[in-house]
Design goal:
By secondary structure, the chain is α+β, with helices and mostly antiparallel strands. The protein is built from three helices and ten strands, in the order E-E-E-E-H-H-E-E-E-E-E-E-H. The chain starts with 5 loop residues before the first strand and ends with a helix.
Length: 182
């Protein structure tokens, strides 16, 4: 008697071979996506005095807060902000943060923060770019990965919920149509 197996391969970070709904193995798969075809959002804000150390340079931990500001703007654009997540019954705790500091932002600078949604099928992953808006110089880049968790049970979800991925897909289709018109 042969056993029925389903193999799920996506452009996400993981591939699973499942038997009776249980993961048998997992390994990393990474496909590059064309960033120009991805969803992104940009915001600008002034660097506040309370974000800085005594040398008036932004304290390193606050760059992660700047990532969060850009992430919130992108999630709002998608129509799935943190309040919508909660209403849908899912939470997305942070699993990994990576940051590369290139140049410092200082008190009085204007930061342009860009978030790019790079993964939405099996996890929520965004790349971030922070720029000095006055000079155009890249100051920081990074990535934040968030896993999907059922709010009631606390169980990690292998795929993101359709209430999120459908919204992303709709915006991607609209973006594709808009780029074809040009």
């Amino acid at each position: 008697m042969s056993e029925k197996r389903t193999v799920v391969f996506t452009s996400s970070i993981s591939a699973f071979c499942c038997r009776n709904g249980r993961a048998i193995f997992c390994y990393n798969v990474r496909m590059k996506r064309d960033k120009s075809k991805l969803l992104s959002s940009e915001i600008e804000f002034s660097v506040d005095f309370n974000d800085c150390d005594p040398m008036k340079i932004v304290w390193h931990g606050n760059y992660i807060n700047y990532f969060e500001r850009a992430r919130c703007a992108l999630l709002s654009k998608i129509g799935y902000d943190y309040l919508e997540m909660e209403k849908s019954g899912y939470l997305f705790p942070v699993a990994q943060v990576r940051a590369k500091y290139v140049r410092s932002l200082r008190f009085g600078d204007v930061c342009r923060a860009r978030a790019i949604l790079t993964e939405w099928e099996n996890m929520l992953e965004m790349e971030f770019e922070l720029y000095n808006a006055k000079t155009g110089e890249l100051t920081t880049k990074g990535t934040v990965s968030q896993i999907c968790v059922d709010a009631k049970t606390g169980e990690t979800q292998i795929v993101c919920p359709a209430c999120f991925t459908d919204k992303v897909q709709k915006l991607l289709e609209e973006k594709s149509k808009d780029s074809q018109v040009l």
